[in-house]
Amino acid sequence: MAAAKAASAQAQKLRAELERHNHQYYVLDQPLISDAEYDRLFRELQQLESAHPELASPDSPTRRVGGAPLPQFEPFRHRTPMLSLSNAFTEDELAAFDKRVSEGLKTSQVEYLAEPKFDGLAISLTYVRGLFTQGATRGDGYTGEDVTPNLRTIKSIPLRLKAAAVPALIEVRGEVLMYRRDFDRMNQRQRENGEKEFVNPRNAAAGSLRQLDSRITAKRPLRFFAYAIGAIDGAAAPATHAELENWLEALGLPVCAERRVVLGAQGLMQYYRAMGARRAELPYEIDGVVYKVNSLAGQERLGFVARAPRFAIAHKFPAEEAMTEVLAIEVQVGRTGALTPVARLKPVFVGGVTVTNATLHNLDQVRAKDVRAGDTVIVRRAGDVIPEVVRVLPEKRSPAALAFQMPGKCPECGSKVERLESEAVYRCTGGLFCPAQRKQALLHFASRRAMDIEGLGEKLVEQLVDAGMVHTPADLYDRSRLNAARLAALERMAEKSAANVIAAIDSSKQAPLARFIFALGIYHVGEEVAKILARHFGSLDRLLAADWDGLIAEKERVQKENARRRNKDETLLTPVLHGVGPEIIQSIANFLRQPHNRDVIRQLRASGAVDETRVRPSAKSGGTLEGKTFVLTGTLPNLSREQAKELIEAQGGKVSGSVSAKTDYVVAGAEAGSKLARAQELGIAVLDEAGLQQLLKES
Ligand code: IVH
Asked: In angstroms, what CA-CA distances link 603 with 478, 537, 541, 593, 610?
């Protein structure tokens, strides 16, 4: 007896505890304990209830996991009809609503409760003496479906109301919905499990709530917000809608934190604009805002017309999705050469503007959505986001519609289109020549770490290209095209600054090979890679004549061989072009294969842009390390040998292969061997990487 009593007390304690944490987590968004701790309490209650079946209780959190499937939903007759709302789409329609209300109530300025219009499903929840007993969908407004077991699984719906004095009966109305982030996560799971994805959070919420098997509903991340009541018994309703919602909140029901009391048509418009601006940042989707006369007596006085209340209205946002037709799929070349398929659309009004194009992102996306020219599609434009094709309506497809193919040649310049293995993006390889990439290519060419042409910035590049004076970097050095007189004729270009720009271009000539290679703007070729290429090839001719396929094959061979050697702890081979991976080489090969790019490079060379004898780009005389000899040994934590060598040489130092009395410093990394020992023998200064960096900084 005593044991049973103790079990009952413990079960009650656990239930209260678990519901409190549900409320903290799902309603207040302020969890107090970890998920693991919650799970522990939950399991303890589950064990207790299965050991003492007589303790079973309808408000136990263990009942939220769902139960055996129903054969069908039973009809649920609403105590008072669940009506729809009339809509206002324009400011005029809104003003007309406010006028009708203020005339009906004979007040000059009406007070309203305004809140978001949730894009979910309306439901009704019945609580008898505080206990959740029954819940139903709206149905046709008069009769809905009894989905009690499903609603029980929604953690933000309390199974028992909180306050001490609860009414004998209260029917709460509100919306079931799914948060956007929960929806995304759920869809990702669906995708990973090879299951069908949901179209949008609303559909997902509707599909989840109408499951005959509530164990499925229990796995879906549904939420609930209360916004009205349908019936009340054994308690007086408050005087205003705002107080009503505060009361619902006190009973433990989730209500929307965005609700506000506003005054008159002006207050309504202000609220509408404010919510419109915040729409995208809300965690759930809304399709407008709802205004309700705040005074409940006022609501009663105004009553209903046909199927909607006269005291409330939905002020809708422009729809973010619309149906239209794909006229064609074209390909756009971006500033960096990336090819983006774009759907040309039959003009459609969506998200508040007329849309004629929608991005399809890349070929993978086109394939995944299987969009074809001629298709009927749903397009979406939310906020300032670029319009996109959400999905195709396959039932409307003509059997003649052909799947989209990425063109093999750039539609802007005719260069070959390639895709690197690791990327979803196809690119035009005509970087130096392609009109779409012109401005970007010139800007990069002139940038400080490339050819370093002062004064040739974004604005001027824009002007030069738009005026047709410059097409490729080679044109910069062609004085029949570009000279001080022609420059000075451009808008906002004084004679003096025109002369300065020409001088800056001229003095950029004779660039070291590495800088020049970097300036070409080959995809994936940064400064470091450019230096390695310059050092390895030593001249443009050799770079242009390189057997890239052979190099890739060689790299792959060494990679394989080294994998084998690593297993056996053998010494590794040093790969050619150390630091330049096969993917980068592929990109260089693609670029240099384009005759247009090669032409531009030859023109640049002919105009003296590059000095091929300056292979070591940054070796400078007069550096503070001038006359100092370094030996590198072992593996440094951050720098490759190559990089360390370059840094030293940049300050005029020399790097040698063996330690002798002439050595000034030995830079030793991990697993340094005999060279370090020799240095110690000779009493030569030994630096680690940090020491080297310090020395470089001082210089
Ligand atoms: S109040 C007496 N408030 O919009 C007023 N309805 O088209 C009853 N809805 O089916 C409704 N968000 O489910 C109200 N904050 C909100 C709402 C809201 C969405 C739904 C409601 C109704 C539909 C009307």
From this structure: 9, 20, 13, 16, 11
117 CA from centroid of ligand 1 (Å): 6
Instruction: Tell the residue nearest (CA) to atom 13 of ligand 1.
Output: 122
User: Does residue 316 contact residue 264 with C-beta atoms inside 8 Å?
Assistant: no
CA dist 126 and 640 (Å) reads 71
The CATH number of domain 323-396 is 1.20.1090.10: no
Query: Tokens 């959400």 identify what position?
Result: 390
Q: Measure the CA dihedral 399/400/405/408, to 10°.
A: 160
Sign of the four-CA dihedral 113, 115, 119, 120: negative
**What are 424-468's pLDDT values in tens digits?**
899 999 999 999 999 999 999 999 999 999 999 999 999 999 999
C-alpha closest to that of 606 among 477, 502, 472: 477
> What is the C-alpha to C-alpha distance for residues 157 and 667, in angstroms, rounded to an integer?
67
Beta-ladder partners of 329: 343
| pLDDT above 50 (res 617) | no
| Cβ(615)–Cβ(538) below 8 Å | yes
Secondary element (H or E) of residue 228: strand 222-233
- Neighbour order of strands in the sheet with 654-656: 654-656, 629-633, 665-668, 685-687
Q: Which CATH number fits domain 87-316: 3.40.50.620, 3.40.710.10, 3.30.1460.10, 3.30.470.30?
A: 3.30.470.30
In eight-state DSSP terms, residue 349 is E
CA–CA gap between residue 501 and residue 486 (Å, rounded): 12
Q: What is the mean pLDDT of residues 103-121?
A: 96
Q: Is 4 helix (H, G, I), strand (E, B) or coil?
A: helix
Q: Which two tokens stand for residue 666?
A: 């030995």
pLDDT confidence band for 1 (50 / 70 / 90): low
Question: What are the pLDDT digits (tens) for 636-677?
Answer: 888 778 778 878 887 888 888 889 989 999 999 988 888 999
CATH class of 428-616: mainly alpha
| Domain ranges for the chain | 2-64, 87-316, 323-396, 428-616, 629-698
pLDDT (tens digit per residue) in 283-328? 999 999 999 999 999 999 999 988 899 999 999 998 889 999 999 9
Q: Do domains 87-316 and 323-396 have the same CATH topology?
A: no
Is the C-beta atom of 228 inside 6 A of ligand 1?
yes
Instruction: Please state which CATH number belongs to domain 2-64.
Output: 1.10.287.610
Phi, psi of 252 (to 5 degrees): 100, 10
Calpha distance 207→209 (Å, rounded): 6
Query: Any residues with CB less than 8 A from the CB of 298 and at least 6 apart, and which?
Result: 105, 110, 311
Distance 229 CA to ligand 1 centre (A): 11
Superfamily of domain 629-698, CATH level 4: BRCT domain (3.40.50.10190)
Mean pLDDT confidence for 89-112: 96
Q: What is the pLDDT of residues 238-255, one digit of tens each?
A: 999 999 999 999 999 999
Catalytic-residue membership of 117:
yes
The one catalytic residue among 5, 99, 106, 117: 117
The pLDDT-based confidence of 621 (bands split at 50, 70, 90) is: low
pTM, entire model = 0.63
Residue 620 scores a pLDDT above 70: no
**Residue 68 CA to ligand 1 centre (angstroms):** 32
Tokens of 572: 């590794």
**Atom 15 of ligand 1, nearest CA residue:** 117
Whether the CB of 85 sits within 6 Å of ligand 1:
yes
